[in-house]
């Protein structure tokens, strides 16, 4: 059994967790990360690592490795957070070197979608698979690919797995990344919310606008409620979303022949009405032989996935370096 430290740097929260290689969480600590200064947060990570290990009756030097889960854009090879989209004061923060120097143990830096894939692979719905894909399915769509028993990182910029930004429509909907027709522009939670607000802005009496928790700002929860109530606009949008999800997932099935595809946030929050329509459309987008051997399932770790993200990255680091 190896002790592992996980550091999860999110847009709204930052967390430190102590766990072991069996997936047991021994302690964790979270705090708000909105509008924070990294010069304050980096020492906090170190002090929490010291506190959590002391409370568990061990020392930081007993920990085999730490793993950092961080959003892109980042310089993953050097462990530098370059320009995280939701943390305006975090610019070119060399977090990997800082933690190596201050914790005096080895560790790694991984993008958050890859960490999600590693967490499901080691501790969740991807256990036992040699070939498996994880899709975040949240405000945006991130992906992580495990192929032949290894995390796929790609070449120099280590950016493989940007599955939300494959183009599925020529000259299609504008994506926040700058391209047009990305998968995320059709199925990402933020893109769908913006689309509803735009298309229904002159229809305050529509069911979606009436159900919106915040006036004029419907979200995925609003769409789900209106879809369940058979609102025609919601039903049409839901069917389009399901078709686009099937189109993209079909591409991944033919490209990677995975045993399992694990879907994050929306899939477990919404339930069967999210996955079932995708399964119905999938035969149009991939070969039957590959579809027959691929399961599409929701995340097992659900909202706890962030607690496992950094710990899973640390465990994978040990695995890649032949230490487990
Ligand atoms: Zn895009």
What do you see in this structure?
It is a single chain. This protein has a 5-stranded mixed sheet with strand order 3-2-1-4-7, with helices on both faces. A 5-stranded mixed sheet has the order 10-9-8-11-12, with helices on both faces. A two-stranded antiparallel sheet has the order 5-6. The relative contact order is 0.15. The mean pLDDT is 96. The radius of gyration is 20 Å and the shape is globular. It is an alpha/beta fold and 324 residues long. It starts with a strand and ends with a helix. It contains 12 helices and 12 strands. It folds into 2 domains: 135 residues, ATPase, nucleotide binding domain (Nucleotidyltransferase, domain 5), CATH 3.30.420.40; 173 residues, 2-Layer Sandwich (Nucleotidyltransferase, domain 5). The site of zinc ion has 6 residues, from loops.
User: Gyration radius, to the nearest Å?
Assistant: 20 Å
The CATH topology of the largest domain is: Nucleotidyltransferase, domain 5
The end-to-end distance, rounded to whole angstroms, is: 9 Å
How do the helices and strands follow one another from N- to C-terminus?
EEEHEEEHEHEEEHHHHHEHHHEH
Helix coverage percent:
40-55%
Q: Using the 3D structure, state the CATH architecture of the largest domain.
A: 2-Layer Sandwich
How many distinct helices? 12
CATH class of the largest domain: Alpha Beta
Given as residue ranges, the uncertain stretches (5+ residues, pLDDT < 50) are none
Number of strands: 12
Write out the strand line-up for the largest beta sheet, numbering strands in chain order: 3-2-1-4-7
Count structural domains.
2
CATH homologous superfamily label of the largest domain: ATPase, nucleotide binding domain
Hetero groups: zinc ion
Query: What is the 3D form?
Result: globular
Question: Describe the biggest sheet?
Answer: 5 strands, mixed
Quickly give the structural class: alpha/beta
Arithmetic mean of pLDDT: 96
Strand fraction: 15-25%
């Amino acid at each position: 059994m190896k002790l592992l430290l996980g550091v999860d740097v999110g847009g709204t929260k930052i967390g430190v967790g102590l766990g072991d290689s069996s997936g047991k969480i021994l302690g964790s600590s979270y705090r708000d990360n909105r509008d924070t200064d990294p010069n304050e947060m980096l020492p906090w990570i170190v002090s929490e690592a010291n506190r959590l290990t002391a409370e568990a009756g061990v020392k930081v030097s007993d920990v085999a490795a730490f793993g950092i889960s961080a959003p892109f854009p980042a310089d993953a090879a050097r462990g530098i957070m370059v320009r995280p989209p939701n943390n305006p004061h975090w610019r070119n923060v060399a977090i990997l070197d800082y933690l190596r120097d201050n914790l005096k143990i080895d560790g790694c830096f991984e993008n958050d979608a890859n960490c999600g894939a590693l967490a499901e692979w080691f501790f969740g719905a991807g256990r036992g698979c040699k070939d498996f894909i994880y899709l975040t399915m949240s405000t945006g769509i991130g992906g992580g690919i495990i192929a032949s028993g290894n995390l796929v990182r790609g070449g120099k910029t280590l950016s493989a797995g940007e599955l939300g930004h494959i183009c599925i429509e020529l000259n299609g909907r504008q994506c926040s990344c700058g391209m047009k027709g990305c998968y995320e522009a059709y199925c990402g939670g933020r893109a769908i919310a913006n689309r509803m607000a735009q298309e229904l802005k002159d229809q305050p009496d529509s069911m979606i606008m009436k159900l919106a928790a915040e006036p004029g700002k419907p979200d995925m929860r609003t769409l789900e409620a209106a879809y369940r109530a058979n609102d025609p606009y919601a039903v049409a949008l839901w069917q389009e979303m399901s078709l686009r999800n099937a189109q993209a997932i079909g591409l991944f099935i033919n490209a990677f022949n995975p045993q399992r595809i694990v879907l994050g946030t929306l899939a477990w929050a919404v339930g069967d009405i999210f996955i079932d329509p995708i399964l119905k459309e999938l035969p149009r987008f991939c070969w039957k032989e590959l579809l027959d051997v691929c399961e599409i399932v929701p995340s097992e770790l659900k909202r706890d996935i962030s607690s496992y993200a950094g710990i899973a990255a640390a465990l994978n680091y040990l695995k890649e370096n032949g230490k487990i």
